[in-house]
Amino acid sequence: FHRGYYIRARAVDHCIQDFLLKTQSHPRTQILSLGAGFDSLYFRLKDIGLLHHTVVYEVDFPSVACQKATLIKRMKELSALVGDTGGEELGVITFSGEDYKLLGVDLSELSELERALEEAGLDNGIPTLFIAEVVLTYMENSRSDALIQWAAEHFSQACFLLYEQMHPEDPFGHVMQQHFSQLNSVLHSLAQYPDCEAQQRRFFEKGWTECSVMDMNEFFTCCTPEDEQQRVQALEPFDEYEEWHLKCSHYFVLTASKGMEPSWTPLLSNMTVPHRDETVRMAGSVTAAVCAMHSEISGLRRYGHHSVLIKPNVILTTGGFGEEDGQHCRMRNFHVLIKHAGYWKAGCVKKENPGKRWAERLYHTVSCLSNSLALVVGGRTSPSSAGLGMLWLKFPETCNASDPDDITVELVSLQPAAEPAALRWRHSTTEVIFKGEKYLFLYGGRSAMEPVLGDWYFLHAQELSCTVIPVEGPVPESRHSHSACSWKGGVLIAGGLGAAEQPLGSVFFLRELEHGFQWQTVETHPPLIPRYSHTAHVHDGKLLLVGGVWFHSSSVPGITVIDLMTGLCLDYTINVEHLEWPLMLHNHSSVFLPNEKELLVIGGGGNCFSFGTHLNPEPVSLSLSNILTSH
Q: Does 145 reside within a domain?
C-alpha cells in the first residue's frame, strides 16, 4: 500500500514540477485539476514556492467542493497560504483566492464546466496543464472523450496528465475489476482503452500532437533517480515484490501536449529499456484444469509455501500464508496430496512433537533426501525478523495411499555448524553430486540484513556440514525468488529478482568438473524474458519455467520451455477457460510427474493492492504432453 500510493504521488509530482519548470519563462500559466477531491496539491506547491505566476483551478462535485472550502477556511495555516479573501463565494465558485479557485461542477456536464471556468477567469490562451488522476475512468467514455477533445481544441498551449488503471483481462485485472464492480463504481475506460497503446491512440485521435505513456514499473525504473529508488526500498521491511510489481503493471501515467514550444515530454526516460507493452510471441497454449479431487480442502489456498514429492504420487505441502480455520494466517498445518486410482485425495498431516521449531515459515525450501527424510532450510516469519534455520522432517517409509489423513510427520530440530548458511529465505536448495557424494547446493535468497544474496554453500547431505568445493567461471549476479533444478549432477539457475529489484533473464548451469564445479551461462534465443517468483522442472533435456512475474504487462507468464541443447526458448500461454476463477501463477508451488507429463500447480496468488486478496482455491493440473513431445 505505502509503495503503491507513493509511486502515484511521485509520478504526478514529477510531471507537474516539470510543467512548472518548462513554462517558468511565461508570464502566466495555469493548472486545472479535474476531480481534485481533497488533494492538497495547491498547498504543497505554494508552500515550496513553485507558484510564482501560476493559478490553480480545482473542480469536483459541488458537495465535495463545499466541504473542501469549509475545511480550508477553518484552518488558519491553509487560509494564510491561499490568502483568504474573506468574502462569501457565489454560485459554483466555492472558494476564490488570488491564485486558487475551487469550483463545484459535475465534470460530465461539459457546457456547465466551460461556463464555470470562464466565470472563474480561466484563460485559454496561456500554457495550461490538465490533471486527471483516476477520474476519467469513472465517467462514461463518450463524456471523458469529449472532455479530452475539448481541452485540445479550446486551449492553444495545452498539456494533459492522466493516471489510471489498465489491463483488465489478466488475473490481477479480474480481481481489480471485481472490486470496483462491488463498490458500484465501474471503471468505464478499461473495455475501450485496455492498455498503453489504446490510451495513446485515444489522445492522438482527440487532437493532441505529442503523447507519451508508461506503466508504473517503467516509471519507477526509468524516471525515478537511482538514489531515490534506494531510499524508498530501504524505508521499511519489505517482502511483497510480486504484489508491488503487479500493482505497477496495472496503472499507467500518460502525458500529452499540443502547441507547446518546446514540446512537453516529462516521461522521456534516462534509460533505454525494451518497450514493456510489446506483445510476447506465444508458441501455443497449455490447458489448465482443476485437479480431479476426492475431497475438498481449504488448506491448499496459500502462497509462499513449498510442495515436494516425498514418494511416488505423494506430495507434501508445508508453510506459507493462507486460509486455515476460516482465517488468513501463517500456515501451521502440513497438507498432503495422494494420487489413488486416478484421483487426488487431500488430507491434513499429523505432526509429532511440533513444538515451536516449525515457526510457521514462508519462502523456505524442502529437500527430500530419502523415502523417509526431508530437510527444511530457511524461511521467515516476518521480513524484519532473522531467517529461520534448518529442520528434519521424518515420515514413514510406507503409507496408506487411500487415506491421506493417516500420514504422520515428525519434526526434529537440529543445530549443525551450517546454521548461519540457512538464515535466509526466497533462496534455493538443490541436490548436486560431487565425486559420487550427495550435497545440497544452497544458493541466493535474501535475509533481514541483505535485500539480495549471491553467495552459496555446499552442505554434505548426511553430515549437514558446510564443505568447501572450488567453483570457477563467471559468478551469477545476486538474486532471490529464482528457480533451481538438479541436472546432470549440477544445478540450473534461472531468472530471479536482482539487486535493484529488477527481474533477471539469465540462466546458469553449475556443472561438475574433476576438481570442483564451474558456472556456465546458458544462452537462450530468443532471450528469456526476465522473470521471478516462478517454479521450474527439467524433463528430457528441457527446462520448464512455470508462471512468475515479469514486466511485460501485455500478458502474464505461462509455461516457458528452454531446450538445453540448442538454447531455443518458447513461451506458451495457459488456457484457463475451464477454470471459474483467475489463476495467479506467482508464489505458487508446482510438482512435475514425468510419466504422465502432468504438472500440478498448488496454491499461489496473494494480495492485490487495495482490491482484496486472491488465493487460487484449488490445485490445478496442466497436461504438458503436447509441448514436450519430441519434434
A: no
